[in-house]
């Protein structure tokens, strides 16, 4: 079992926060994680933080932009788990990437797992377990022989341009059935 290195957020306080205060709590958590990382790597650059990520992804270390991206809707819906799991997850990516030869490390490889366990005291998981229904709506309905499938606007556009999709269960080609507003 691991011991959390970052103090646990107060759940009662988190539930009371409005959107602006919640975003400030996220920034404070990133700063605390950054300070912890700096104890190991004093030359670690401070990441910029954006709340502009959409879809099913909760967070992303974006080295090209020089910072961390987070999904504001998933933050709002999963406050405690987001601060306890997602922030350390992305900061671990940030730290590993900036270590010597870190750019050669596998994204969720040994180095990243070690940072998650030993520095942050969090069990390393490559994916979150959040409900992404509202964050990634799929209102375009397709049908096969065994079930109905929901497509996002992007996947629907690709299908309309000729890309063929098949069901993983019955292997039939998916056929467009219509749009359902959320």
* Largest sheet, spatial ordering of strands: 1-3-2
Helix/sheet category: alpha+beta
Number of helices: 6
Element pattern in H and E: HHEEEHHHEEHE
How many β strands by DSSP? 6
Give the end-to-end Cα distance, rounded to a whole number of Å: 41 Å
Multimeric status of the protein = single chain
| Biggest β-sheet strands, sense, barrel | 3 strands, mixed
Radius of gyration (Å) = 19 Å
Fraction of residues in helix? 25-40%
Indicate the mean pLDDT: 91
Notes on the structure:
This protein has 182 residues and is α+β, with helices and mostly antiparallel strands. The chain is 38% helix and 13% strand. The strands form two sheets. A three-stranded mixed beta sheet has the order 1-3-2. It has a three-stranded antiparallel beta sheet with strand order 5-4-6.
Q: What's the SSE blueprint?
A:
Elements: H1 11-16, H2 19-38, E1 48-50, E2 59-62, E3 67-70, H3 72-77, H4 79-98, H5 110-119, E4 140-143, E5 148-151, H6 153-160, E6 175-179
Parallel strand pairs: 1-3
Antiparallel strand pairs: 2-3, 4-5, 4-6
């Amino acid at each position: 079992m691991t011991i959390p290195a970052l103090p646990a957020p107060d759940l009662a306080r988190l539930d009371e926060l409005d959107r602006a205060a919640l975003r400030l709590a996220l920034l404070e958590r990133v700063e605390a994680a950054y300070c912890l990382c700096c104890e190991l790597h004093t030359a670690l650059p401070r990441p910029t933080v954006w709340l502009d990520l959409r879809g099913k992804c909760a967070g992303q270390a974006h080295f090209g932009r020089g910072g961390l991206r987070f999904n504001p809707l998933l933050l709002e819906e999963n406050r405690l788990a987001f601060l306890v799991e997602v922030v350390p997850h992305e900061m671990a990516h940030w730290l590993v990437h900036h270590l010597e030869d870190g750019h050669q490390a596998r994204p969720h490889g040994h180095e990243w797992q070690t940072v998650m366990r030993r520095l942050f005291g969090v069990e390393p998981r490559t994916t979150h377990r959040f409900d992404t229904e509202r964050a990634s709506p799929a209102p375009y309905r397709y049908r096969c022989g065994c079930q109905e499938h929901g497509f996002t606007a992007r996947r629907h556009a690709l299908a309309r341009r000729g890309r063929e999709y098949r069901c993983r269960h019955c292997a039939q080609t998916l056929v467009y059935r219509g749009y359902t507003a959320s």
